[in-house]
Design goal:
Blueprint lengths: L3 H6 L1 H9 L7 H37 L5 H33 L18 E6 L12 H8 L2 E2 H7 L6 E2 L2 H20 L3 E3 L4 E3 H7 L17 E3 L4 H6 L5 E3 L5 E10 L18 E11 L4 H18 L4 E5 L11 E9 L4 E10 L3 H6 L2 E3 L6 E3 L1 E9 H11 L7 E2 L13 E2 L2
Parallel strand pairs: 4-8, 7-13
Antiparallel strand pairs: 1-10, 2-3, 5-6, 8-9, 9-15, 10-11, 11-12, 12-15, 13-14, 16-17
Length: 423
């Protein structure tokens, strides 16, 4: 959520900044709601003052053993008017909150302004694998090796799900443990294993609600949701809490399954592991002081990239243009790994800075040690990394002519010393 005072004082500038993200801020609606809200606050404060003054007058009249009936009558009328105004304020605040929650975050000035065509590759690592045979896709490899069963997954659930079997299941487990070990042992993240079901307040804090509700799996009418990413429960761990400055930055790494309807995936590649409704992911989340958040974003990106480098998979880092940014992000890097079987780069991580946008929605703050002032933290997160497409890339990059898969060196200890996945 944006700072109301900042929006009010920079309304035209904010409208222009949001336009490069493809959002049209209703300037008149903001002024109308904000003006009415401030006017009501003023009237409520005035009536509260009158009511408090009347209470003191009644006390003095009673001390003097006089009849306070007339003053009590006036106070009751004031209280009645106050109740009406406070009810009007609650209704107006609800309407204003809905309006504010629909406004995306302002892009950082370093994000290229424009649509997806302006996304900029800022790093290229590794060399694309060359084969002396025609490489198979991960779908073909998985079926031949009997390690992923898409047909049975559809029978159990629906299309867009995957059933990992045997060495496919073990590869999944190996990757999760490998990534958690790297981030906790080498990158100093604290491991978290959060619930996979969250309430609406948690989804609102990170920005999934109300804007992206159609992409979420809601469980019942009580407002519980399957998580789309560990970002949601881990960020909301500190909702309505205040850090001491000395505690920052805070680093968390969490494995979870993730659930997404992929409602907006029409026309996109959805075969195999390209776009599934359930996938595994190790997520990295940071809480930082405002003046350190962009330095911490670069560190976060390096941490996620390290996973791919240790797996020896060619990748590139893409700085997203403003119209390609997520609702809550000010700046974002995508990490895309190459998959030679489908001959595409596949996104496996988005590393984002949200500044104080999520912190305002979740009331997550810190106390400055010198001034004792309470400020909002900055939140960041990034996948470290997502497994579905990572597994697709590993299968396609490490395939042999006979259809077997060489296990990446760093994963061999997690695969019981195996050298190959073979039929």
């Amino acid at each position: 959520m944006l700072d109301i005072k900042f929006v009010r004082e920079n309304l035209d500038s904010v409208k222009n900044l949001l336009s490069v993200k493809g959002f049209n801020l209703d300037r008149e609606k903001f002024l109308e709601l904000d003006g009415a809200r401030r006017n009501l606050i003023k009237k409520i404060e005035e009536l509260r003052g009158i009511k408090n003054q009347a209470n003191e007058e009644i006390k003095n009249i009673l001390r003097q053993k006089k009849d306070p009936a007339q003053t009590i009558s006036k106070m009751k009328e004031t209280a009645r008017r106050l109740d009406v105004l406070e009810e009007n304020f609650r209704k107006l605040k609800k309407e204003f909150d809905v309006f504010l929650l629909d406004i995306p975050n302002i892009p950082h000035q370093s994000s290229p302004q424009g649509n997806i065509s302006l996304n900029r590759t800022i790093k290229q690592w590794g060399v694309k694998k060359e084969f002396d045979f025609t490489p198979l896709t991960h779908i073909e490899l998985a079926e031949q090796l009997d390690i992923i069963d898409f047909k049975r997954a559809s029978k159990i659930s629906a299309s867009g799900f995957a059933l990992f079997k045997g060495n496919g299941a073990r590869l999944t487990r190996a990757l999760i443990n490998f990534m958690l070990d790297i981030h906790t042992d080498s990158h100093n993240y604290k491991e978290i294993f959060p619930p996979f079901i969250v309430n609406a307040a948690s989804m609102t804090t990170t920005g999934q609600l109300p804007r992206m509700e159609q992409d979420m799996y809601e469980l019942d009418e009580h407002g519980y949701y399957l998580i789309p990413t560990a970002e949601v429960p881990v960020t909301s761990m500190h909702r309505n809490e205040t850090f001491n400055e000395s505690e920052l930055p805070v680093y968390y790494a969490a494995y979870t399954a993730c659930f997404r309807k992929e409602a907006g995936s029409y026309g996109k590649e959805t075969k195999g592991l390209m776009r599934v409704h359930q996938f595994d992911k190790v997520e990295l989340v940071k809480f930082t002081k405002p003046d350190e958040s962009y330095q911490e974003l670069e560190k976060l990106l390096d941490n996620a990239c390290k996973v791919i480098e240790l797996l020896e998979i060619p990748y590139r880092v893409v700085l997203l243009a403003t119209e390609d940014l997520s609702f809550a992000a000010t700046k974002c890097y995508d990490i895309e790994i190459h998959a030679p079987g489908v001959d595409k780069y596949l996104e496996v991580s988005s590393c984002s800075n949200f500044e104080d946008f999520q912190a305002r929605r979740g009331n997550i703050r810190y106390r400055d040690e010198k001034s004792k002032k309470i400020n909002f933290v900055h939140t960041l997160n990034g996948s470290g990394v997502a497994l579905a497409r990572l597994i697709a890339s590993i299968l396609e990059n490490y395939q042999q002519k006979n259809g077997s898969i060489v296990i990446p060196q760093v994963l061999k200890p997690y695969m019981g010393g195996k050298e190959l996945i073979e039929k």
